[in-house]
Write a structure and sequence with these properties.
Elements: E1 4-12, H1 16-27, E2 33-35, E3 49-50, E4 59-60, H2 61-75, E5 78-80, E6 84-88, E7 94-98, E8 103-111, E9 115-117, H3 123-127, E10 133-134, H4 137-140, E11 148-152, H5 156-165, E12 171-175, H6 185-193, E13 197-200, E14 203-212, E15 215-224, E16 230-234, E17 237-240, E18 244-246, E19 257-258, E20 262-263, E21 277-279, H7 291-320
Parallel strand pairs: 1-2, 1-8, 2-5, 8-21, 10-17, 11-12, 11-17, 12-13
Antiparallel strand pairs: 3-4, 6-7, 7-8, 9-18, 14-15, 15-16, 19-20
The structure holds flavin-adenine dinucleotide (FAD) and NADP nicotinamide-adenine-dinucleotide phosphate (NAP).
The site of flavin-adenine dinucleotide has 37 residues, from helix 1, helix 5 and helix 7.
Amino acid sequence: MSESRHTRLLIIGSGPAGYTAAVYGARAMLQPLLVQGMQPGGQLTITTEVENWPGDTMVMGPDLMVRMEAHAREMGTEIVTDTITRLDLHQRPFRATGDSGTVYTADAVVLATGAQAKWLGLPSEQKFMGFGVSACATCDGFFYRGREVVVIGGGNTAVEEALFLTNFATKVTLVHRRDSLRAEKILQQRLFRNPKIQVVWDHVPVEVLGDADPLGVTGVKLRHVATGAERVIPCAGFFVAIGHAPASELVKDQLKLHNGGYVWVEPGSTRTSIPGVFAAGDITDHVYRQAVTSAGMGCMAALDAEHYLAALEAEKELDAV
Ligand code: FAD
Ligand code: NAP
C-alpha cells in the first residue's frame, strides 16, 4: 500500500535553491520536507572547483552540496530520497506523487527542480550517447585518458569542461558557433593559454561519426556557419555543453511559463501563478543561473511561503470562530 505524508512546506529539489529554502523554512518552524530527486545536490555535483561561492575562494562543487544538505538537515528539514513524478497543483492541499509510490500532500510548495543539460538533437548524438557522447566531463573525462576530445559550446560550462578535460586528453578542441565566447573573461584567459586546447570558431556539428562494432565515436563532422564548408575533426569523446533547459515538465500545464519553459514568478518575488506555489533557482531564472542567485531565490521562496502559510492559517482560525 502506498504511504501518504502531509507537510506544511514541500520543497522539490536539492540544489542550492532547495537546500537554502530548507534552511530558512526549518528556521521558520515550518518543518519542511525536501524531496531530493534523481540528482541529490543538483548541478554543482557534476563540477569540480567552484570559485565564486562567497566565503570560499575555492570549494569543490560536490563538497559544497554535502555541506548544504547537512545544514538543511541540522536545522530540522526532513530530507527524502525520492523523485516526484506527478504534481497536482489544482487541489488543496497540493498533491505530489513520488517514484517510490509515496503521496506527499502540502499546504505550500517550493519548486526548485533546476535545469537539465540541452542536447543538439542530432540522430548520431543519440546513437553514440554513453559511447563517446557525453554532457558531463566530470563524470566521463577519465575515460578519455590519452585520447582526443571535442567540446561544443561557448559558455562557462563549455570552457570549464574543456579545461577539465585537459587533465586526461592529449588534445581538446572547443567548437563554437560564433567568433567570440560568452564565458567569463577569467575562464577565457585560462582557455586561450592552455596549449592542449584549440578553438574552432564559427562552426556547428552536423554529425557525430563512429564505429558500430564496438560502438564508439571516431570524430565529428563540422560545418562552417557562413560558407557551409565541411570538415572532420577526429576524436574519441564528444562533449555537448550548449546550456541548460529548465526542468519544468511537472508543472508545464499548470503554471504560467515564460522564455521557453521557465516558471514565471511575480517580479521581485518567488510567487508563481498559483498562490501557495513558489519557484526558486534555475527553474525560474533564464538570466543569472548561478549557485548564489539560486540560493538567494531559495531564501526568498521560504520567506514568501512563510507569509503565505501565516495568512492561510489566520484565515482558517477566523473561519473556525
Ligand atoms: P539544480 O542545481 O539544477 O538542482 C535541481 C534539483 O532538483 C536536483 O537536486 C534534482 O535532483 C532535483 N529535481 C529535479 N526534478 C525533480 C523531481 N521531479 N523531483 C524531485 N527533485 C527533482 N554556478 C556557479 O555559481 N558557479 C559555478 O562554478 C558553477 N559551475 C557549474 C558547472 C557546471 C558543469 C554546471 C552544469 C553548472 C554550474 N553552475 C555554477 C550553475 C549552478 O550549478 C546552477 O545555477 C545551480 O546549481 C542551480 O541551482 P538550483 O537549486 O536551481 O537547481
Ligand atoms: P550558456 O551560458 O547558455 O551557454 C551555452 C553556449 O552554447 C553558448 O555559447 C551558445 O552559443 C552555445 N549553444 C547553444 N545552443 C547551441 C547549439 N544548438 N549549437 C551550438 N552551440 C550552441 O550555458 P552554460 O555555459 O551551460 O551556462 C549556464 C549557466 O550556468 C550560466 O548562467 C553560467 O554562468 C552558469 N555557470 C557558471 C559557471 C561559473 O560560474 N564558473 C560555470 C558553469 C556554468 P551562443 O553564445 O552563440 O549563444
